[in-house]
Amino acid sequence: MKIKHNKKRNTAFVFESLMREATVAVIKGDTDKQEKVIQIIRKHFKEDSELKKHLECYRSLYENQNLSTENSEKILREAKIASRLIDPTGLFKSQSELINDINSDLSPDVFSNFVPNYKTLATIDQIFCQKLAPKTRIMLENTIVENMSKSAPPAAIQEDIDKTTVNCFVEKFNEKYTDTLVEEQKQLLSHYIASFTDNAVSLKVFLNEEIGRLKVAINESKTSDVFTADSEMKQKAEQIIEKLDGFKRAEINDEILLTVLKTQQLVREISNGSDN
Q: In sequence order, what DSSP letters do the residues of 44-74 get, joined into one string?
């Protein structure tokens, strides 16, 4: 029997979607929305809450990597037990309150956010369901154990993502943020979204070239009157260049993306003659 997946009641999906909503708010400088998202997360995912306990059950399965098959199976077994110990009535009520707060304080669009490890989260949600046929449960559990045993982060195991879904997300993203992001930022985010279908190959190539461009632009700006007249600004420019250099040896993560996005905005403002 196939169980329909309700992503609004997939605790991990909703949490990841809220985190992405907060990230976009930071990028846009929308402090009001950022604060609303943070308040919702703090309210519903506080320590000892049903939702926090449920989220930890998911996290124990999708945030681990490069584990032995034996340890992966043990963690899976403990996660299932922990999920069953959570009061189902209390969990359902907490999920309903979270959904209501998102709909009223943010937007129902939050539930349409692109979460790269969606398939993994949906699989875990099915495993926690008590209505699965034994064969289906075993097959899904084998998939999760296999993912946990791989060296690549489970969040990046999305080689079979439906390209139509990705293209639809890109289109919606561009429509929503076309007036608030500069062209370079839109290009970076488009490569980031596409990275879940090509093992981040195009993203790495773009970042390598873009970081080089940003370093040249900042170096050239240090000779401008604004920088030569302000030693602190010149020092900060050096720190930015040093940080960008460090990214060559690091795995791509949210911190790198946010730093590059902010640097892109800085370089654009410098080129437009802003002294802010």
A: HS-TT-HHHHHHHHHHHHHS--S--HHHHHH
Residue with token string 């969040």: 155
Place of tokens 């077994």: 77
* Residue 268 burial class via C-beta count within 10 angstroms: exposed 0-12, middle 13-18, buried 19 and up: middle
How confident is the model at residue 180, as a pLDDT? 61
Q: How far is the C-alpha of 256 from the C-alpha of 39, rounded, in Å?
A: 25
Q: Which position has the higher pLDDT, 13 or 149? A: 13
Residue 121: strand, helix, or coil: helix
Give the C-alpha distances (Å, rounded to integers) separating 24 from 21, 180, 270: 5, 11, 23
Task: Report whether 188 contacts 195 (CB < 8 A).
Answer: no
> Which pLDDT score is estimated for 266?
84
Could you tell me the two tokens for 91? 């969990």
What whole-number distance in Å separates Cα of residue 60 and Cα of residue 98? 22
